[in-house]
Amino acid sequence: MVTGTVQAVREVESPTALFATTYGWVLVAKIGLVLVILAAAGVSRVWVQQRLGVRRPRPGGRRTLTAHAFAAGASGPPGALDPTAADETARAAGLRGRLQSEAATEHVPALRRSVLVEVAVAAVVLALTAVLVGTPPARSAVAQPVDVLLPLQGASGPSGSVQLSVDPARPGANTLHVYLFDDTGRLTQPAGITVSLTEPTQDIGPIDVELAAAGPGHYVSDGMAIPGAGTWTLAVSVRLDEFTATTARTDFPVR
């Protein structure tokens, strides 16, 4: 049970993923049904204790034995039990057992229904478990912001790097940050820069992204529009001078 709980936390990671994905809702349903099983089992346990007179021994408790003392008749030998008292005790014990049996028989349908509920819900829990195995984890089904550092490739090889950040990486308006670095890791100002979006599997793009300078080597697009879900390619083309150009690209999921 502990292992399953840890695994569920790893697959979900956040409350948002729990209530915004198919995996999360199936997991919530499974947890709810497990609670129903525990409740039904509790009802059955209480029924057995009350109707059959079964009591769970207390940890560390001492067992007690009730000894009945009977006065010996004048005609009987010393220490002998009174036959009348012994008969009455036996009849009382038999009556008690008979009453418990009759009471248990009257409530057997209720116990049967409780057990059937346990069996039916357990079968549903097993089915939900099978569904969870074949469902993508919630953490992979929720949109994740993009933050990646890529080398800039030129005709003569790598030359500097570019850092791309896309938030929240969902359909609609997104914020894009572009940082350009030279080979020493310092921000550098290029002669020109262009960014485009493409979704090859849906034949969308390239869509030019408008950038605004936000500082040396830093560009921002506050309204970068992503038309819909898919695996999008963000391409950057940097012109370092009149004769040198470098490019970089990255793919990221949009859900």
TrEMBL record:
Pfam families assigned to the protein according to its UniProt record, in alphabetical order: CopD (PF05425), FixH (PF05751)
Nucleus as UniProt keyword: no
Source superkingdom: Bacteria
Domain spans labelled Copper resistance protein D: 2-68
Membrane-related topology note: Multi-pass membrane protein
Transmembrane segments: 23-48, 115-134
Record keywords: Cell membrane, Membrane, Transmembrane, Transmembrane helix
Location(s), subcellular: Cell membrane
Main location: membrane
Name by which UniProt lists this protein: FixH family protein
Organism: Blastococcus brunescens
